[in-house]
Amino acid sequence: QVQVVESGGGLVQPGGSLRLSCTASRIWFSSYTMGWYRQAPGKQRELVASISSTFSTNYADSVKGRFTISRENAKNMVYLQMNSLIPEDTAVYYCYVNRDRTYWGQGTQVTVSS
């Protein structure tokens, strides 16, 4: 069974940085699109960033210039570097992997607050 596991969430002050990490097992990692969604209380889940098997990236307008997604296929890892965080970034962040179907992680909480 495919397992997707996130780490790296936490509490950070506005203007701070966090790096989220995600690993997936039991898949041919390099052939999958990887990405991050987030869901804030009372809001729909939204795509934050994705990176394809060819390293093409896509970002939500709200995070462009602040967040960077990257992947290390040799380590089965995908990362989300989040800089200049604002309170509106507060949400549960979910990692996903997708090729023929989508697999989700359990989510990691990111809270931006002073």
What does the secondary structure layout of this molecule look like, with pairings?
Layout: E1 3-7, E2 10-12, E3 18-25, E4 33-39, E5 46-51, E6 57-59, E7 67-72, E8 77-82, E9 91-98, E10 102-104, E11 108-112
Parallel strand pairs: 2-11
Antiparallel strand pairs: 1-3, 3-8, 4-5, 4-9, 5-6, 7-8, 9-10, 9-11
Give a brief rundown of this model:
By secondary structure, the protein is mainly beta. The chain has strands spanning 3-7, 10-12, 18-25, 33-39, 46-51, 57-59, 67-72, 77-82, 91-98, 102-104, 108-112. The radius of gyration is 13 Å and the shape is globular.
Structural account:
- The protein is mainly β and 114 residues long.
- The protein is 0% helix and 53% strand.
- It is built from no helices and 11 strands.
- The chain has strands at residues 3-7, 10-12, 18-25, 33-39, 46-51, 57-59, 67-72, 77-82, 91-98, 102-104, 108-112.
- The strands form 2 sheets. Strands 2, 4, 5, 6, 9, 10 and 11 form a 7-stranded mixed beta sheet that branches. A 4-stranded antiparallel beta sheet has the order 1-3-8-7, with no helix packed on it.
- Strand 9 (91-98) and strand 10 form a beta hairpin.
